[in-house]
Amino acid sequence: MPIVIFISLFTLLDFVVLFSIGSHIGLLTTLLLVLGTGFVGLHLIRKQGVSTFARARQRMQAGEIPSSELLTGAALIFGGALLMAPGFLSDALGLACLIPNARQLMLKALTWLGLKKVVGQQQGPSASSVRPDEYQNGQSSQQDGPIEGDFISRDEPPRRR
């Protein structure tokens, strides 16, 4: 819910800034600036997207996981969407997502905020590692061997008994 409120307030503030600046510089200049940032954003996305895709392909061929390239690709998509939205605040944030040094700075800030939030939430055993009946007793047993069970293959026809 807080993210919906944040997005709504950001959009409202973006339009207020757009209309305020537009009233001072004129309609035609405002439209040219909004369209110009959209085209610049598309050009930067195309240029950096191709190089990011090539780096990801190289890392995958080397047997590595291209995690940083995936984050870069997500930032490029997010930045491109912001540049295509009308508004000066969204354009500034979109350009920051497309500039490599600014993108890394934003990633560090988001990582720091995310880690701070996660550290504050993890004060007991995680719900995924403890079953409900063990959680109530305050004990948790981790098995180091294989987990036994039955499975049904959806590719095979059912067997007759």
Q: What does the model show?
A:
The chain has 161 residues and is an all-alpha fold. The protein is 72% helix and 0% strand. The protein is built from 6 helices and no strands. The protein has helices at 2-25, 27-61, 67-84, 88-98, 100-121, 132-137. It is elongated, with a radius of gyration of 24 Å.
- How many beta-strand elements? 0
Helix content: over 70%
β-sheet strand percentage: under 5%
Shape: elongated
Label this structure with key terms.
161 residues; mainly alpha
Can you lay out the helices and strands and say which pair or pack?
Blueprint: H1 2-25, H2 27-61, H3 67-84, H4 88-98, H5 100-121, H6 132-137
Q: How would you briefly describe this protein structure?
A:
With 161 residues, this protein is an all-alpha fold. It has helices spanning 2-25, 27-61, 67-84, 88-98, 100-121, 132-137. 72% of the residues lie in helices and 0% in strands.
